[in-house]
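[recover] target loaded
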């Protein structure tokens, strides 16, 4: 599963229609260029590829006021909306993907209903706990990881990472259940995109 695919679809979706620079600007505003592979080349490539695949529809519009060739604006097709929601649900449930995918999913979780997000996160927590149980049964000696030599520290690191991940997931579930954030169908959502021409303090020029 690709974080860049979820990020680009989600950014376009938030605008309705967006050109490549807007998508890039939003992802940099969220810091995605620091915690994912959402670099300019990857973003523009993803937009073009998904347009070819029918996930995005490309509109050629007039040149920008600054001159240059016509810009292309993208919007999600019906297939693109289905793809976005499928990727989002899978990323919130999965426990064994890279952190960039989970980070992207958290950024878009409010596009789903509150109860569904809690259900997905509980499924993720259950998978984490199942994985930890299966691992510690075989790979965590009672007298500590050093009895397996320095190699024991590898699994020790993964178990501790899993524990921290589970604790964070429980905390997120508790905050959501307590009423944090505005989810789909609850009212005006938090706006996390920049307006046309709005300066981005985090842009990488």
């Amino acid at each position: 599963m690709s974080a860049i695919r979820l990020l680009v679809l989600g950014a376009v979706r938030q605008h309705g229609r967006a050109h490549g620079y807007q998508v890039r600007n939003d992802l940099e505003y969220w810091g995605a260029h620091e915690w994912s592979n959402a670099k300019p080349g990857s973003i523009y490539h993803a937009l073009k590829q998904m347009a070819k695949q029918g996930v995005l529809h490309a509109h050629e519009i007039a040149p920008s006021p600054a001159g240059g060739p016509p810009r292309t604006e993208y919007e999600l097709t019906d297939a693109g909306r289905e793809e976005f929601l499928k990727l989002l649900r899978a990323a919130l449930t999965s426990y064994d993907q890279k952190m960039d995918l989970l980070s992207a999913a958290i950024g878009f979780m409010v596009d789903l209903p509150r109860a569904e997000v809690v259900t997905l996160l509980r499924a993720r927590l259950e998978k984490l706990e199942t994985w930890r149980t299966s691992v510690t049964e075989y790979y965590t000696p009672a007298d500590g990881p050093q009895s397996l030599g320095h190699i024991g520290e590898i699994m020790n690191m993964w178990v501790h990472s899993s524990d921290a991940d589970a604790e964070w997931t429980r905390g997120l579930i508790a905050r959501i259940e307590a009423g944090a954030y505005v989810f789909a169908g609850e009212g005006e959502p938090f706006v996390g995109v920049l307006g046309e021409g709005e300066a981005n303090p985090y842009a990488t020029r």
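[recover] notes: The first helix runs from residue 3 to 15.
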